[in-house]
Amino acid sequence: MQQSLRCMALANVQALTKRVADDLLQRAKNAPIVRKQLLDSNQIQLLSLTLNRSYLYRDTGHLKEGVLPIGTPIPPGYHLVYFTPAALPDELGNDGGDISYNPSKPFNRRMWAGGEMQWEKKNPLRIGHEAIETTRLVSAEPKTGKTGDQLIIVRVEKTFENTNGLALVDKRDWVFRTELTEPVTLTEARESDSEPPSPLGSAQESRDFLQTPVSLFRFSALTFNAHKIHYSQPWCREVEGHRDVVVHGPLNLINMLDFWRDVQEDDYRIPRSIKYRATAPFYVGEKYRALLERGAGSTSVKLWGRSSSGEFKVGMTGDVVH
């Protein structure tokens, strides 16, 4: 009897998840969002400084010394500081985030899950030029998580065009979880330590990161992202179930692409594509490490850190095709 009731309850929850996903697909059906924007130099300069990089390319000089020339190629991933959310305050979600492609309640908790970017290598986006972004909803897929919880995976596709045609296709996946119905047991935020945050293994290059409240604030400001998981510890702990403020997925993605670019002989090089996946969050004030391994025609980058119990974890993976 109890088994039968549990099966019925699960079937009802799964049916609700599918209805919510189908409703989102219907709402966004055949309704792409098209925007045009001038890709100004200021955003790129401020992003580079936020990333603790005093130059854009090795031959462009210090960023505090002048404006980047019109026509300078925008590095891979740096387009993420353009076409930021355009919403009035009362059009945002309770979490402060953009809700253009959010499913309805109870799927209120959003995380950046992964995606893919494909560049037209001979037609990069350039500083001082105009670009057109077209965004459309690709899918909203109901899923059952590893612990039995119900999820909705939302994929959007953004294309970026300039006067020469297509420059970039950017596919993004978000995972939406149901709101918490009871408090979760959380560990206290870990203090940073000097221990290596990853096994070095067969990696050929490594780079360490530690995001501060200031670096997260600056990145949120540049991307016009008011999502509270990136600055409000009470919201993270009491509403989202995180032990501390969460590092932005796009920030980690840009750092991975910069790492790849820095080990190239020509740092103007543009990859064909990157497929990436966020597998675990990193938190403010915690050290984590990028490990890079070169292969035939592609490069693997993994971000490693430590869990609350001190065990190794992989927070993001990326495969860059040259």
Please specify the SSE layout and strand pairing:
Elements: H1 2-27, E1 33-38, H2 41-50, E2 109-119, E3 130-144, E4 150-162, E5 165-177, E6 205-210, H3 213-222, H4 233-240, H5 249-262, E7 273-278, E8 287-294, E9 298-306, E10 312-321
Antiparallel strand pairs: 1-3, 2-5, 2-7, 3-4, 4-5, 6-8, 7-10, 8-9, 9-10
Using only C-alpha atoms, the radius of gyration works out to: 20 Å
What is the overall shape? Answer: globular
Largest sheet: 10 strands, antiparallel
Helix fraction by DSSP (H/I, runs of at least 4): 10-25%
| Overall average pLDDT | 91
The proportion of strand residues reads: 25-35%
Strand order of the biggest β-sheet: 1-3-4-5-2-7-10-9-8-6
Number of continuous helical runs? 5
Total beta-strand segments = 10
- Secondary structural class: alpha+beta
Uncertain stretches of 5 or more adjacent residues: none
- String of helices and strands: HEHEEEEEHHHEEEE
How far apart lie the N and C ends? 57 Å
Structure write-up:
This protein has 322 residues and is α+β, with helices and mostly antiparallel strands. The protein contains five helices and ten strands, in the order H-E-H-E-E-E-E-E-H-H-H-E-E-E-E. The N and C termini lie far apart (57 Å).
Task: Summarize this structure as a short list of keywords or feature phrases.
5 helices, single chain, ten-stranded antiparallel β-sheet, alpha+beta, 322 residues
Give a quick rundown of the structure.
A hairpin with a 2-residue loop joins β4 (150-162) and β5 (165-177).
